[in-house]
Amino acid sequence: MNRIHSLFKNKQERVLSIYFTAGFPKLEDTLSIMEAIQAGGADIIEIGVPYSDPIADGPTIQDSNQIALENGMSLKKLFQQLEGFRSKIELPVVLMGYLNPIIQYGMEAFCKKCQEVGIDGLILPDLPMQQYLDEFKSVFEQYGLVNTFLISPQTSEKRILEIDQNTDGFIYMVSSHSITGAKSGISEEQISYFKRVQEMGLKNPRLIGFGISDAETFSTASKYSHGAIIGSAFIKTVKDSKNLNQDIQAYLQSVLN
Amino acid sequence: MIRVDEKGFYGKFGGAYIPEMLHPNIEELRDNYEAIVASEDFQKEFQMLLKDFVGRPTPLYFGSRLSEKYGAKIYLKREDLCHTGAHKVNNTIGQIILAKKLGKKRIIAETGAGQHGVATATVCALMGMDCTVYMGELDIQRQRPNVERMKILGAKVVPATSGSKTLKDATNEAMRQWINNPVDTHYIIGSVVGPHPYPEMVARFQSVISEEIKWQLKEKEGRENPDAVIACVGGGSNAAGAFYHYYNTPEVRLIAAEAAGLGVSSGKSAATTALGTPGILHGSKTLLMQTEDGQVVEPHSISAGLDYPGIGPVHAHLFDIGRGEFVAVEDEDAMKAGIELSRLEGIIPAIETAHALHALNMIEFRKDDVIVINLSGRGDKDLDTYIKWGNY
Ligand SMILES: Cc1ncc(COP(=O)(O)O)c(C=O)c1O
After folding, report:
1. Is the pTM of this model over 0.90?
2. Does ipTM exceed 0.85?
3. Number of the ligand 1 atom closest to the C-alpha atom of B116
4. From chain B, which residues contact A within 8 Å (Cβ)?
5. What is the pLDDT of residue A166?
6. Is-catalytic flag, A108?
7. Which of A94, B100, B222, B318 has CB 3.0 to 4.6 Å from A121, enough for a Cys bridge?
8. In chain A, where are the structural domains located?
9. Which of A52, A131, A179 sits opposite B176 (nearest CB)?
10. Beta-sheet strands, E only, within B220-283
11. Predicted confidence band at A179 (pLDDT cuts at 50, 70, 90)?
């Protein structure tokens, strides 16, 4: 069974997913960051594949992408680093990246490689649902990869239902009208959107992301969903870290407690 | 037949590869723009403003000394005489009326040379709309006069500080800001790029250029169709406008001049068809300059308006099927062509436009061929660059 499915079978609340950019802060940090995220008690690891033009990302993740590329990160390099990671990591692992580098690698070759190294799912923010259905769904399925779609406060009820029909992993709820970036607090307006979607009775679990940064925002988001995704705030944690393992675990404890 | 299909593709290129957060905006545009643009109301206002505000029709001018030099009948389509100094305003007039009809309150735009930014700031002033323009930090330095023009017109100019700090990065920033303000804001894209329906919508607003060329040439030469149309290509909006009514007339050659920068293989170039491969940039599948790993390469051109690593999907298609002839013009040659036009015809062209002029040296044509060059803009904004280059 796909690890994402097993996870949500066993756990329906306070699921914590952590995003980091591969190749940041140092090119070879990928595996140590993954191990620290696992040791710190998170439930899903999201590895960001860096891209030169990340249009859905705010300054923190943009910078991490640029530095990762300068460090020499590429999809080929990432797959080399991920060779054999399953001997150490049990958590579900999802790759998140923009479409262009993946298309250059070749979608089928990419999906095949994902399966070989042990990736469970994909989040490709600039792959719209229709294009996915027309061009890529069968390849994803062939290699056992769960696809995750985003929804935002602007997404219509009709489209949310369509998205729910066309995925079987989890739905990524973008918390507000925004690109990624840690903000302070969650507003009433956001909560009413969380509630609105919660009451739709979707078949897929929902994780809330964008602007989740600490214990308080994590707990609030978890009240209205199955859990949350932290990206920018985590990138800030690793950015200036002198001791990745220690700082990551301390940060995760602060969020989970 | 060259035309966009219902999914927004020109052959293999186009589409709408956008984050879900932008889906409602793009859907709203896609579902409404054709009906709005076709409405009598829209057309009345659009035609009136093109005539009385922009100053259309722009002349089709026979350049006798240029013709003599090159041994062909060369006509210049004078988009440089449009209000604000370039063709860009044809599109911004169309989009601002559309934005108003969609009930939008705020406008955002990207700009490279600043011509599209000025054209956007101008129509926002005209309609009393709030306007923010994103512009690469490098372009802010090299197109100073246009930055000040935008500010005089009441627009806010925000520097894009990531990547190459040019047009590509300004476009990224504008898209991010649209994600952040999806409800009351319309994004006026300045070229035939971006997700469907932008490329076709912008091309339609610019198609007035070839519509006029047809009847003007009929008056002057007794024929609607020239032997060739030449235009420069950044994203490709002036070229799309000049080519539009000739796409499906194979006897008219369509010649597109790209920026070769310091040379196609110098590593400092923006010659997209020469160097590009299929990929996805700013929401559409097109040709773009990229590394083997799919990272977008930072382009270079002396002209800010051509300093872009991709081209509109329609141009990728014209290239792909061999309908368009693409030439790559180096910085130095473009500058010389700009001076040449100044001396021969008394017109100082924009440096973007100068690339199209140099194409006369790169293509074969018969004596007495009728050639129309789209004079996309005037050189006032480029005086600093001309002065720095100094060779005149
Ligand atoms: C005068 C002029 N010509 C051409 C261009 C290039 O744009 P496009 O290829 O969309 O016509 C610009 C862009 O700023 C411009 O200012």
Report:
1. yes
2. yes
3. 14
4. 7, 15-21, 23-25, 162-163, 168, 172, 175-176, 179-183, 277, 279-283, 290, 292-296
5. 95
6. no
7. A94
8. 12-256
9. A179
10. 228-232, 253-261, 277-281
11. confident
Distance, in Å, from the CA atom of B77 to the CA atom of B378, rounded to the nearest integer, reads 12
pLDDT at B247: 98
Which of chain B's residues have a Cβ under 8 Å away from the Cβ of A103?
Answer: 279-280, 294
Catalytic choice (A29, A43, A57, A120): A57
Structure tokens at A28: 């070879």
CA-CA distance, B240 to B251, in Å (whole number)? 17
pLDDT tens-digit map of B292-339: 999 999 999 999 999 999 999 999 999 999 999 999 999 999 999 999
CATH number of the structural domain A12-256: 3.20.20.70
What residue has token string 């062939």?
Answer: A142
What gap in Å lies between CA A95 and CA B171, rounded to an integer? Answer: 26
- Cα(A11)–Cα(A222) distance, rounded to whole angstroms? 12
Residue A107 structure tokens: 């979608």
**Residue A182: pLDDT band with limits 50, 70, 90:** low
Please tell me which residue of chain A has the smallest CA distance to B16.
A128
Q: Which residues of B are designated catalytic?
A: 88, 110, 376
Q: Is the CB of B331 under 6 A from ligand 1?
A: no
The structure tokens listed for B115 are: 């011509």
List the single residue in B19, B180, B296 with the smallest CB-CB distance to A53.
B296
Q: Among all chains, which residue has been given the structure tokens 């696992």?
A: A38
Tallying the residues shown for chain A, one arrives at 257
Residues of chain B with pLDDT under 50: none
The pLDDT, as a whole number, for residue B64 is: 98
AA letter at B252: V
